[in-house]
Amino acid sequence: MSIHFAVWLSCGLLSPLLSAAAAIECTGEKDDLLRKMPVGLPLPTECLMECTALIYARKVQLRDTRNVRLKDATEETGEYCWALDLKCNVGESLQHAFVVLPAEAGREQPTLRSTVPVAGPLRGHPGPDLLHESCGLRYDVTRHFGAGSAGTSLCVQVLAQQGPTAAADYSVPQCPPFLVTFWHHRPNVAQQGGGG
Fold this sequence. Notes:
By secondary structure, this protein is of the alpha+beta class.
């Protein structure tokens, strides 16, 4: 319960106050990021909620002004996917995108492989200071969200260390992977665009 309150407090009060240049820049109308959740929409996983609390606590500690968004994946036949069309506000540009795979210490560490838009292994990455190591294993997927990206979604598979043959017998130890995006916000652009 206290984690949920901390997340609410961090997201509700600090997110508008705390907001670096990259592949995606928002130039359209201001997006309504905070809206009522439709009935029947699944709640975020506990791993995502715990990571959100850790990130926002670290944001306050480091006085970091980047916007951070976390999103659970949709699971489709053993793949975890996210839309490449990320929601953002006028004046924001994507700085980094990471797929985070929660993993238990002391257990065999899985690996990730992208399947869409381009198939191939994803390499572990230490991640930025805000992305707490307790959130899980981090994989940089920023390049998949660039202006020249093909397709409409990014999908990954979780593989055991032995390779794809063992993947069918492997299950994610704690939670499915989730996406963490870091955004740079230029307030003067938002004000010129009529947003805020």
